[in-house]
Design goal:
By secondary structure, this protein is of the alpha/beta class. The chain contains seven helices and seven strands; from the N terminus they run ααβαβαββαβααββ. It has one domain: Rossmann fold. A seven-stranded mixed β-sheet has the order 3-2-1-4-5-7-6. Strand 2, helix 4 and strand 3 form a beta-alpha-beta unit.
Amino acid sequence: MERAEWDERYAGTELVWSAGPNQFVAAELADLPPGRALDLGAGEGRNAIWLAGLGWQVTAVDFSAAGLAKAARLAAARGVTADWVNADLTGYQPAPGAYDLVLIAYMQLAPDAFRSLLGKASSALAAGGTLLVVGHDADNIAHGHGGPQDPERLHRAGDIVAALPGLVIHRAGQANRPVQTPDGERVAIDTVVRAQRP
């Protein structure tokens, strides 16, 4: 989807995604000591707001001004703050070595653009910093529920790991995510990769 389509999608008063953090984001990051966090592709801000509530100093980047405006309103309502940055991730360059945590959640870019984003995310990590990548897995089309249907934009853990030389990999694989539908619960297949700068 293009920027204008996301702006239109986020323009409504209802949340497109849930108000709480993604389940894998919460499970993987809840025990980390707060520091500086960078959320790449923040959308409506659910993960950034959750991190800010835990004491993180969060920079949240997205190309949808409507999504970030909604995120800022939600953050204010919850009494937390973040630095909301309206930028296209294909051109955005985070400061090197500046973040204790970099999060990429459900950014389903074309392969070259995604590899470039992973490189930027890796370089943005401070020593000891954590990178968490969560997204729709390539096997989701045939065996899971929902998500993008373009296999070029879906993830494989091995491809992500290969794009992160120099990082220590703590988790890399598939994870099942329950999805509530009008027809009952379904399961989506996601990729989860957690890495750390030595």
